[in-house]
Design a protein that fits this description.
The protein is α/β, with parallel strands linked by helices and about 160 residues long. It is built from 4 helices and 8 strands, in the order H-H-E-E-H-E-H-E-E-E-E-E.
Length: about 160
Amino acid sequence: MKANRFFSILPALAVIFCFVPALTAYADEEIDATRFVPARYILSESDVVNSLQGSISAWPKSGYWVPDESLVNVFEMQIRQIITEESAVLRPFNEYTLQYVGLTKQGSKLILANAFCYFPPEYDISRQLYVVNGGGNCNFGALFDPLTSRIVGFSVNEGY
């Protein structure tokens, strides 16, 4: 993947990644890497909707679905490939925790991968959507189209 395509912020991601005040962490938080254990979580529709309760974000309050494990596996293989190709920019794959969320955008089903290398202990990331503003290469997002089995968006957070 060419660097200019890699860093482009696609409109789909711009709409999806936005402020979620009750669920947002900031890059200037002190990080205790000793308690971080990378993992993978597929969030349910109710997990996402419950995470958004009371939020004034632009995230829709419905239209979520649970991605099939086999689709997530295909998506994850492609994420690993991008990380390998962009190793000068991104951390090794095994340093990230990933949350997978099935969502519907303009009638099309997509899968969002929400990746981060740190999260505060008060978050139950197995059931609570975790959105980060900033954080640099510790955080990235990707969108996957299950119909084409291709990544259609990839964005690394800015700032450190």
